[in-house]
């Protein structure tokens, strides 16, 4: 891949390599990352899902630096300044990474467990750098901040699930709730800017649903994160090119039914005239479909996104009939509709409301979300930021640091070294860490990187930093293996993906929709810093 040939020394914003020259000399520096806003700044729900740190650690942070990489970067930096002049390049510091730290970036990173449900302002990770290398504390900000993407996708997908589940609670019998798992299908692969984006975002969606046409993400989640156990699935489906390849839509549908008609399959219906296809073609192939016995999913792909779903439901009911469930809503026999055009969080709710208002159960509808799921979002969607929070100067003086711009109070950052632990109600809150830097016994921030050491993979092999031939048993690190690897106790195994899905589900549902996670102790510290700072 392209990025495999790019030295880690340039895997950051240009100005980051100038900062080691201007940071004050220090014994220690600490920085942290957080989401500062709810999804789309929603005042009624500031919950979110912390997810994605493992990918960044394993694929970037934990990669070994080499002298060759540094030399290659030096060639680049010699012409990177404006006017093709030399750009500030801390070569001596980078060479020490190789010679004195075995090539591994010399920081410790703590992070929330993958899949943790939190509120805005809870630290997602914390970076600790010491000694001469403290000047590199925010060098990794560019890479680590990219966790905004999987977190935002996971949060959007979970919020979408809430909408669908609410409609299910109203209109679907309990014995059909199993279908909820596949109601939101990932159609986003082709709308992504790269395969890597599709894998990262598609995997985040799979925390909440099983439906996905982004096979790269489903494959990665299954074999890299879940020990080979399936995570995502799909169904056979036609596209417009398939439908228009036949002389008539009837022949195209008959080909689909003849090939896949004994299972679940989908046909796109608007290649020419959606209404005509529903009124004439669907009745013409109905007997063949009934003979095969499978489940047909009709897919509109143009027109009014709400009305086209209702048109499909009415046509399907007319052709195949329906039954009224225990909650008083109609369930169409052997047929449903999937809307995959223009689906967003807002339009999804509109479609569900209209479906129920028309008397149909929500189980009749599925949704495909493409660009709206994996592409139409950015770092500002939930306002992710990484900021310095604490410094110990060479003379031992400690100073808690925070950003507090008068022109934008939303951009205030948190001061000090931080702990994250549960209050009496089990809700995660942010507290100041003790002055001796020892985490509270209930702190849930876990060490995910420590000068090259990373957690083991729960899939039976170690993470890339360690020899792949060394295996672990179960989800933890046994005593003998930990001794072999010289692992600190805190560097436990990454959990299986199935465990993350359960963690997301239970954690999300247990949280109040709106909550201020800043403890009184930290609020007092903020007041003190504001009163005594610049």
From TrEMBL:
InterPro entries, per database record: Aldolase_TIM (IPR013785), DUF5598 (IPR041529), N/Namide_PRibTrfase (IPR041525), Nicotinamide_PRibTrfase (IPR016471), Nicotinate_pribotase-like_C (IPR036068)
Domain annotation Nicotinate/nicotinamide phosphoribosyltransferase: ranges: 183-417
Keyword Transferase in annotation: yes
Main enzyme class: transferase
Pfam families with a match to the protein in the record: NAMPT_N, NAPRTase
Metabolic or biological pathway: Cofactor biosynthesis; NAD(+) biosynthesis; nicotinamide D-ribonucleotide from 5-phospho-alpha-D-ribose 1-diphosphate and nicotinamide: step 1/1
Origin: domain of life: Eukaryota
Binding site for diphosphate: 190, 240, 299
Residue ranges occupied by any Nicotinamide phosphoribosyltransferase N-terminal domain in the UniProt entry: 8-109
GO-annotated biological processes: NAD+ biosynthetic process
Recorded catalytic activity of this chain's protein: beta-nicotinamide D-ribonucleotide + diphosphate = 5-phospho-alpha-D-ribose 1-diphosphate + nicotinamide + H(+)
Enzyme Commission number, as recorded: 2.4.2.12
GO molecular function, one term: nicotinamide phosphoribosyltransferase activity
Keyword Transcription regulation: no
This protein's UniProt keywords: Glycosyltransferase, Pyridine nucleotide biosynthesis, Transferase
Protein residues bound to beta-nicotinamide D-ribonucleotide: 213, 299-301, 340-341, 371, 379
Family assignment from sequence similarity: Belongs to the NAPRTase family.
The protein, known as: Nicotinamide phosphoribosyltransferase
């Amino acid at each position: 891949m392209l990025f495999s040939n790019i030295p880690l020394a340039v895997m950051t914003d240009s100005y980051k390599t100038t900062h080691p020259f201007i940071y004050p000399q220090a014994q220690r520096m600490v920085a942290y990352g957080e989401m500062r806003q709810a999804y789309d700044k929603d005042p009624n729900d500031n919950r979110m899902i912390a997810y994605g740190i493992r990918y960044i650690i394993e694929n970037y942070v934990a990669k070994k630096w080499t002298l060759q990489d540094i030399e290659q970067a030096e060639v680049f930096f010699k012409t990177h300044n404006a006017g093709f002049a030399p750009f500030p390049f801390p070569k001596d510091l980078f060479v020490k990474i190789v010679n004195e730290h075995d090539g591994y970036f010399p920081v410790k990173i703590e992070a929330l467990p993958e899949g943790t449900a939190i509120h805005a302002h809870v630290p997602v990770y914390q970076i600790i750098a010491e000694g001469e290398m403290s000047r590199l504390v925010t060098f990794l900000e560019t890479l680590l901040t990219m966790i905004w993407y999987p977190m935002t996708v996971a949060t959007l997908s979970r919020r979408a699930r809430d909408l669908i589940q609410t409609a299910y609670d109203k209109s679907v019998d309990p014995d059909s709730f199993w279908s909820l798992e596949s109601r939101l299908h990932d159609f986003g692969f082709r709308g992504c800017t790269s395969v890597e984006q599709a894998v990262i975002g598609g995997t985040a969606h799979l925390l909440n649903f099983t439906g996905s046409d982004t096979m790269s993400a489903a494959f990665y989640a299954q074999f890299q994160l879940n020990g080979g156990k399936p995570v995502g699935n799909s169904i056979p489906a036609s596209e417009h090119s398939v439908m228009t390849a036949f002389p008539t839509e009837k022949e195209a549908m008959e080909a689909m039914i003849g090939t896949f008609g004994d299972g679940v399959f989908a046909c796109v219906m608007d290649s020419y005239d959606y209404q005509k296809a529903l009124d004439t073609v669907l009745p013409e192939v109905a007997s063949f479909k009934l003979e095969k016995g499978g489940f047909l999913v009709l897919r509109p792909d143009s027109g009014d996104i709400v009305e086209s779903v209702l048109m499909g439901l009415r046509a399907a009911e007319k052709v195949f009939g329906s039954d009224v469930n225990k909650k008083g809503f109609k369930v169409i026999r052997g047929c449903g509709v999937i809307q995959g055009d223009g689906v967003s969080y807002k339009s999804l709710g509109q479609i569900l409301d209209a479906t129920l208002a028309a008397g149909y159960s929500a189980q009749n509808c599925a949704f495909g979300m493409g660009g709206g799921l994996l592409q139409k979002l950015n770092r500002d969607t939930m306002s992710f930021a990484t900021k310095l929070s604490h410094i110990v100067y060479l003379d031992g003086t400690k100073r808690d640091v925070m950003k507090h711009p008068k022109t934008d109070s939303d951009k205030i950052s948190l001061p000090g070294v931080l702990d994250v632990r549960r209050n009496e109600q089990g809700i995660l809150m942010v507290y100041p860490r003790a002055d001796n830097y020892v985490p509270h016994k209930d702190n849930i921030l876990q060490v995910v990187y420590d000068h090259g050491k990373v957690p083991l993979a729960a899939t039976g092999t170690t993470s890339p930093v360690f020899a792949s031939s060394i295996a672990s048993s179960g989800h933890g690190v046994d005593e003998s293996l930990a001794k072999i690897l010289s692992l600190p106790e805190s560097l436990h195994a990454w959990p299986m993906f199935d465990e993350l899905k359960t963690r997301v589900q239970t954690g999300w549902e247990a949280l109040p929709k709106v909550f201020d996670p800043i403890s009184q102790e930290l609020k007092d510290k903020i007041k003190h810093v504001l009163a005594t700072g610049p």
